[in-house]
Amino acid sequence: MKGLKQSLVTTSTKLFNAILQPINVLYFFFLFGCGLATGVILSSNLKNVSCNLLASQFSVSAAPTKTVPLATLPAFELPRIGLKEHLKVPDVKHDMDEKELLWRASMTPRIREYPFDRVPKVAFMFLTKGPVLMAPLWEKFFQGHEGMYSIYVHSSPSYNESKPESPVFHGRRIPSKDVQWGSTNIIEAERRLLANALLDISNQRFVLLSESCIPIFDFSTVYTHLMNSTKNHVESYVLNGPVGNGRYDPRMRPVIKIEQWRKGSQWFEMDRDLAIDVVSDQEYFPLFQKHCKRKCYADEHYLPTFVSMKHPERNSNRSLTWVDWSRGGAHPAKFSRTRVTVEFLERMRSGSKCMYNGNSTSTCFLFARKLCPDTLDRLLRFAPKVMHFNS
Ligand SMILES: *[C@@H]1O[C@H](CO)[C@@H](O)[C@H](O)[C@H]1NC(C)=O
Ligand SMILES: *[C@@H]1O[C@H](CO)[C@@H](O)[C@H](O)[C@H]1NC(C)=O
Ligand SMILES: *[C@@H]1O[C@H](CO)[C@@H](O)[C@H](O)[C@H]1NC(C)=O
Ligand SMILES: *[C@@H]1O[C@H](CO)[C@@H](O)[C@H](O)[C@H]1NC(C)=O
Q1: Where are the transmembrane segments (predicted)?
Q2: Which residue lies with its CA nearest to atom 1 of ligand 1?
Q3: Between 3.10.20, 3.30.160, 3.90.550, 3.30.450, what CATH number should domain 96-387 receive?
Q4: Which of the ligands is closest to the CA of residue 118?
């Protein structure tokens, strides 16, 4: 535009001069024509130039040319981040307090389909006093299946970790609190384990294990069995008498009635939906904290009752952890070295009958307890042959 103005100014000066010198009328017309032509040519060229500039500045896909400032380009060349930043799993050793942790863990997407490839994982949650005693066997169990499992350990805060931890358990201890067996704080610990495991969106099934638990099938069998199961595995049954219904406190009415009271083993296996319900429960658990103390053994009643009230149709009502109560008494049998034989393992693996996804099966247990640490060398020896580890 500047060029056009200049040429107009030049033309008017020439016009003035021409009027002063009437002899040069012809010269004036010649100059006027030239000026006009120059103006027209210049203005149309300028329009083209500015149009091109605009076009290349606003078109994202345009190939970079010399006229586009280079500083604006790198933003389009970064690799795609997508949801990565939003689904970051916090460090196992975070400093969220109990309220913060449970609140964060209770979050769930309402769109059921994942907009990315999600490899579902099994969360193995160990509730222990000290170290995971059977770690070398678990080590063999997990070998070669990275990316399909997560491990969480809740152990007594006074445990020192003086012995070097085995690799798969290294750094997997969650912020833990003291637990008294039989008290409601054992359920707090279970909820703490669930909440920590829920922070990883990939975790789909959640297994609670003790330090004396062992796997009795190889990883692939356990993984397929859990992922394909249409049911949760929280043992839940009615038991009349002092150690069953006798532990019910009528002050739990009207939220929990005596006919809704259940008993069962604390060693559960559940899916993500139920795990979220458990960490979000603010109605039933406070009642247990108030009215199920000491001789009530809340860990044997809270989940069996909660699950049978909230999701009875999705529960198998049986535990996946084999245990021997045949001797009676308050504690199940403990097995030491000489009791561990191939036949013993086979009996745990397929000595029962139960239902799985609507079909009868003899694979009712995937884990077993209570195994003493001195059984480890035998278990390691039998595992490849009987349990098909490393196959
Ligand atoms: C933990 O370690 C300290 C010193 O390192 C020791 O005094 C204490 O007894 C240990 N506690 C346990 C439970 O092993
Ligand atoms: C579930 O079972 C089917 C066969 O019934 C199998 O093809 C599939 O791989 C199993 N799913 C998982 C997650 O293992
Ligand atoms: C488990 O028990 C509940 C009642 O507590 C019942 O509704 C449900 O059908 C039972 N599930 C199975 C598989 O038997
Ligand atoms: C039950 O067993 C039958 C025959 O063995 C099989 O065809 C069917 O797929 C099984 N159903 C389930 C749900 O596993």
Answers
A1: 21-42
A2: 160
A3: 3.90.550
A4: 2
